[in-house]
Specification:
Helix content is about 30%, strand content about 25%. By secondary structure, it is an alpha/beta fold. The strands form three sheets. Strands 3, 4, 5, 6, 7, 14 and 15 form a seven-stranded mixed sheet that branches. It has a six-stranded parallel sheet with strand order 10-9-8-11-12-13, sandwiched between helices. It is globular and about 60 Å long. The structure holds NADP nicotinamide-adenine-dinucleotide phosphate (NAP). NADP nicotinamide-adenine-dinucleotide phosphate binds next to helix 1, helix 3, helix 4 and helix 9. NADP nicotinamide-adenine-dinucleotide phosphate (NAP) binds next to helix 1, helix 3, helix 4 and helix 9.
């Protein structure tokens, strides 16, 4: 099969190679002895793959390895007891190995792909939408009627958070850096859009009538202190990632003064060891798809052999929605 490997840690321009590899065995490290084998049609591209080309991600497999955490395609084989069978269209989280014509995922992270979604959308479903749901609801205790401010709102996780928040009955304020991203956030269903380069904290306070209940933050960096200031009393700031590049530090007296909380939300570490959590979140996301709230926004698409260009789009802050590799 054709696949993209990371062969060294020199970054997206030089670390990737298109190779021919043997087909993988039907087993996965998260479900030893059992794996759903998928003929990949589309592979999702995300921040971890970019970090992996530099050896900066927490999962550091020995070189060379095939990156790619999620795919959409057609099941070739599935173990007994799996919820999917050969021929099914699926979205699957494989953690590694997705930038290839064939990938293997654990049964508990393989979901039938609803007819409403095409393969490219399926390749943007699990990482971003499960993270958004886990962060907003499981960790952030979002309630209907609350207002959520979403940073990086035109990105993969950001667009997912806008749609999931809406589906949970919340009002959304998207924070983006430019006009093109403003359009993407609106397409994703944002109620309001403000610019990260403008007085977004004051705008958010005004739009929410005094402060937002929840901030969803996949960006971190210099936005963090103003994010805390934009919360209402009892508000929650959910730490999702650090796309801005730096990990913020905070003086905790701010939490005391505002009666606010900072909550960490790491979906992967939590969900990988809890099959039942994935099934619950998968069912909830399916419900949101059926109700029309969830429709992954697909941005740029590249053929498999141009994986480096796909990673560069993320690196250069040009990505909107989900970047996808068309594999078949
Ligand atoms: N906690 C979890 O379980 C979990 C799960 C998945 C992903 N994540 C993390 O979430 C973060 C976002 O992932 P994503 O897939 O949504 O990425 P993405 O599609 O590239 O979006 C990230 C957004 O961050 C903003 N940003 C601000 N400063 C940036 C910079 N210096 N470089 C790049 N982007 C910058 C950009 O929006 P503007 O230009 O509009 O500011 C961009 O749209 C990553 O750190 C990822 O590792 C965490």
């Amino acid at each position: 099969m054709k696949a993209i490997q990371i062969v060294d840690l020199t970054g997206p321009d030089s670390a990737l190679e298109l190779v021919d590899l043997p087909e993988p065995e039907p087993t996965h490290m998260l479900s030893p002895g059992e794996g759903v084998v998928v003929d990949v049609h589309a592979a999702g591209v995300a921040f971890p793959e970019l970090l992996q080309t530099r050896g900066q991600y927490q999962i550091k497999p020995p070189l060379p390895f095939v990156p790619g955490s999620e795919v959409a395609g057609v099941v070739r084989s599935a173990p007994a007891g799996a919820a999917v069978t050969p021929g099914d269209r699926v979205a699957a989280f494989c953690a590694l190995g997705g930038f290839a014509e064939t990938a293997v995922a654990p049964p508990f992270l393989t979901f039938a792909l609803p007819d409403e979604l095409d393969f490219a959308q399926g390749a943007g479903l699990i990482l971003n939408y499960h993270t958004a749901y886990f962060s907003l609801l499981t960790r952030g205790r979002l309630r209907a009627g609350e207002t959520v401010l979403v940073h990086g709102a035109a990105g993969g996780v950001g667009t997912a958070a806008l749609q999931v928040a809406k589906g949970l009955g919340a009002r959304t304020i998207a924070v983006v850096s430019n006009e093109a991203k403003e359009q993407v956030a609106l397409e994703a269903g944002a109620d309001h859009v403000v610019r990260s380069g403008g007085p977004w904290k004051d705008e958010a306070k005004e739009l929410s009538g005094g402060g937002v209940e929840v901030v969803f933050d996949p960006v971190g960096g210099s936005l963090f202190t103003d994010s805390l200031r934009s919360l209402c009393e009892g508000g929650r700031l959910i730490v999702v990632g650090f796309a801005g590049g730096s990990i913020p530090e905070v003086k905790v007296n701010r939490l005391l003064l505002g009666n606010t909380e900072i909550i960490g939300a790491g979906w992967g570490g939590y969900a990988m060891s809890r099959p039942e959590v994935n099934l619950e979140i998968g069912a909830a996301i399916n419900g949101l798809i059926e109700q029309g709230f969830v429709r992954p926004i697909v941005g740029e698409r590249f053929p498999l052999e141009r994986a480096a260009d796909a990673l560069r789009a993320i690196d250069e802050r040009r990505a909107t929605g989900k970047i996808v590799l068309d594999v078949r």
